[in-house]
UniProtKB/TrEMBL annotation:
InterPro entries: Quino_amine_DH_bsu. This is Uncharacterized protein. Residues 388-397 have a biased composition (Gly residues). Residues 375-397 are annotated as: Disordered. The lineage of its organism: Bacteria, Bacillati, Actinomycetota, Actinomycetes, Kitasatosporales.
Length: 397
């Protein structure tokens, strides 16, 4: 059994692959499973992952190291927007978003207790809420709402005990938040939640069955982050800060900075990544990985724990975003994946069905795998080990 495996999803064609690392051998394959790219993969204890099948309306628990890939399937409301669990990996919450619609329309929230085999659906508020599940004797579900912005606190037990028929769930507590929140993280130890906004990262700490607001962490830049992630290798938050003209047609001129805030020291480090489209990131053992898409050439950017920066050119995508068009609609992108317990990285080549396996220590490609679906929009991927610490981040990525 390999120490690490790679899961790759083509959410359009409905295929999920399991590959060994670093050779890239496909060992398992699911068909007819259209996973939510936005909700992503959620690391659970023991090398398992949770994800949502947006077509069938099911939360899946996958065990890529086991004999059977699908360990459990639980009906949930879709389209899935965000997915999170408590620090034990037992209690999960799934929020709903736009899907292929132009405006928010669903107010459904699903909570699942994997150990008890129970699930319930409630109505909250129409929108695209982020979600975290705080642990403790009585876990709390915290929804991050926009316009008006707020952190809405619900008792997990109350939601799970809701009567049939999707009743309205009234928050137990509310904490004001700016209207432009986008990006969530949790630090499980002290029970802190974080929400990325234009003014900085708003923080709150659990107190009883509610939240107490703490200091706002500034971006220390004219740009802002739209993605927030806890570094399980140390107590730090990461984001990519996007600056410049917000017009999507000007995407090739967007500026990008890696933002790392050490939660122990309070220090923030900014690193320039270059112009173009940079969004999600991935943690390898000693590196943080980003992909940068640009008309002049794409690259994998590796930021070492010692501050060194390595840029690895990537082959062009036939359907890549172009100058004068948007980077979102009808174009190909890339997904990046890594395990905090290993040195391997994976980068997809959307539209070509290719996955590049890279050694983060050298930047050299160890294998290039061609799958039998195109990996539309870059697909989605996660790289994990049985005990690599990835489960310390209890949000889907």
């Amino acid at each position: 059994m390999p120490a690490s495996v790679l899961l790759v999803s083509d959410h359009v064609d409905g295929a999920v692959y399991v590959l060994t690392v670093p050779d890239g051998t496909v060992t398992k394959r699911l068909t007819g499973r259209h996973l939510s790219e936005h909700a992503g993969f959620l690391a659970l204890p023991g090398g398992r992952v949770a994800c949502v099948d947006d077509r069938r309306g099911e939360l899946l628990v996958l065990d890529p190291f086991g004999d059977e890939l699908v360990e459990l399937a639980v009906p949930v409301a879709v389209p899935a927007e965000h997915l999170a669990c408590d620090p034990t990996g037992r209690r999960l919450a799934v929020t709903t978003g736009l899907g292929k619609n132009g405006e928010p329309w669903s107010d459904l929230l699903t909570v699942v207790d994997l150990t008890a085999g129970e699930a319930a659906r409630v109505r909250t508020r129409v929108g695209e809420p982020g979600v975290t599940v705080l642990g403790g004797g009585d876990p709390l579900v915290v929804l991050r709402h926009r316009e008006p912005g707020a952190l809405a606190v619900h008792r997990f037990a109350d939601l799970l005990a809701a009567r049939p028929g999707c009743p309205v769930a009234v928050p137990h507590a509310l904490l004001p938040l700016p209207d432009d929140g986008h990006g969530d993280a949790q630090d499980p130890g002290p029970g802190r939640v974080f929400a990325a906004t234009g003014t900085g990262v708003h923080t709150a700490r659990r107190k009883g069955d509610g939240l107490v607001a703490e200091e706002v962490i500034p971006w220390e830049s004219q740009a802002r982050g739209w993605y927030l992630r806890l570094d399980t290798r140390r107590r730090a938050l990461w984001s990519t800060l996007r600056g410049g003209d917000p017009d999507p047609l000007r995407w090739s001129d967007w500026t990008n900075q890696a933002w790392c805030h050490d939660l122990e020291t309070g220090r923030t480090l900014l690193t320039d990544l270059g112009p173009g489209l940079v969004f999600r990131l991935a943690f390898a053992r000693d590196h943080t990985a980003f992909t940068r898409i640009h008309p002049d050439g794409d690259e994998l950017v590796l930021l070492g724990s010692d501050g060194t920066l390595r840029r690895v050119p990537l082959p062009a995508m036939a359907g890549a975003p172009k100058r004068g068009g948007t980077p979102w609609e009808g174009v190909q992108r890339r997904a990046v994946a890594a395990s905090p317990g290993d040195h391997w990285l994976a980068v997809t080549r959307g539209g070509h069905g290719e996955v590049h396996l890279v050694d983060a220590r050298t930047g050299h490609e160890t294998a290039r795998v061609r799958l039998d679906t195109p990996l539309h929009h870059g697909g989605h991927a996660t790289l994990l080990g049985r005990n690599d610490g990835a489960g310390g981040d209890p949000l889907g990525r």
